[in-house]
Amino acid sequence: MTFGYQYAISPTDEQKERLNRAFGCERKVYNEYVAHLYTELEASGFAGGFIRHKVPNYTEFTRRFAFLDRSNDSFVYNDAKRRFQAAVQKYNETFARKPIQYKKKARNRMNTEGYIPSIRDIKGLPQFHQKKNAKHSYTTNQTNQNIRVIHENGAVFLRVPKFPEGISLQLHRPLPAEGLLKKATIRREGERYLVSLSIDFPSEKVEKKHNVSANKVIGLDYSQADLYVDSEGRKANYGRYYRLIEKRQRRMNKSLARKKNAAPLDENGTIQYSRTYQKQMNAYRALLAKSKNQRKDFLHKRSYQITNEYDAIVVEDLDLTNLAQMRKLGKNVHDNGFGMFRTMLQYKAERNGKHYIVADRYFPSSKQCSQCGHLHDNLSLSDRVYVCQNDTCCTKIDRDYNAGLNLKHYGIRVLKEQGMTL
Ligand SMILES: [Zn+2]
């Protein structure tokens, strides 16, 4: 199993310059790949469908530009290739199955003006990375111990290729002593610089617990407002937390849009962004990054707590990638929080020898009465309280709590089938 360890780094001004140059060179090579693809597609009269494109080696492009030299780690260029390949693969996976799709703007013009679309109007093709919203990052792989974290005179440094002097690193939590350091991704978020170290651990199978008692089984029902409601009726308190951050984001977003609208245009019609705009944009990016990290932190802590306290965790089988269907179910996934949370629960459970149980997709966790098992077939999505239709039961219970309980019972059944007595 591979785990990521993220740390803040404090490069010197001179190191910052070199890192930013590396990010820029990565983008340059990536864009050369995109341009190369577009030329080839245009020449072949491509009109959507599967892309069969032989991806050239990065030297094809680096030899054309003197500044793409060996002053950069060669992985900077290789990373551009890797990202480009991933973008093509993503396109192929998503769109090759469907008939050709055009961007909305092009579609409108096709309908109204008889516009003839070009390949640039096809949805999902790899796009040019623009400077203003590019990912400022690159990944370098371990070869012959060229990535190391070293301790020197009480300070900690990250050594990566082309930075043999080391970049100062804040080791806020220790690196695990065992495990192999496989790669390092260096990136910039606003004004912050970070490194994510991927560490491989030998996968030793942890034996799962054999005697689980019923009160150590927990069901978690996905909830739109609160992330989840558990089988004790407790909420994650994630929704309120999330909205608080969202509010600040919205406010900044609005202010940026106002500034953009007010900005003057030059003779080519390009927006002349002010310095304050760019400063605020950086602050906005920093806020996005911060909220992302806070959210992740919250999910880490909560999943740690649950997998520590309980021996079996039961969740629903949700297809979180299928957003359209989710909306139909009234499960609005505003971020991928629950997907990430489930992944964390799973690997933390496995690491601790706990059971991670996923209920069958057709298990009626919402419709069933958790007290008598009666099925409420016309339960509507707006019913926040479950009222049992069975005359002898008549249970009234919070909808999500009821579903959480059903998931718990489901888990107990699965464990019993495995020969446990609960
Ligand atoms: Zn009932």
Structural description of this entry:
Residues 1-36 form the Transposase putative helix-turn-helix domain. The chain is of the alpha+beta class and 422 residues long. It is built from 9 helices and 13 strands. The protein folds into 3 domains: 9-138, no CATH class; 139-200, no CATH class; 214-238 and 288-417. The longest helix has 35 residues, at 275-309. Bound molecules: zinc ion (ZN). Zinc ion (ZN) binds next to loops.
Short structural description:
The protein has 422 residues and is an alpha+beta fold. It is built from nine helices and 13 strands.
Which molecules are bound besides the chains?
zinc ion
Strand order of the largest sheet: 2-6-7-1-5-4-3
User: Could you name the ranges where pLDDT drops below 50 across 5 or more consecutive residues?
Assistant: 323-334
**N to C succession of SSEs:** EHHHHEEEEEEEEHHEHHEEEH
Query: What is the total domain count?
Result: 3
Radius of gyration: 26 Å
> How would you classify the helix and strand content by structural class?
alpha+beta
Count of extended strands? 13
> Treating each run of at least 4 consecutive H or I residues as one helix, how many helices?
9
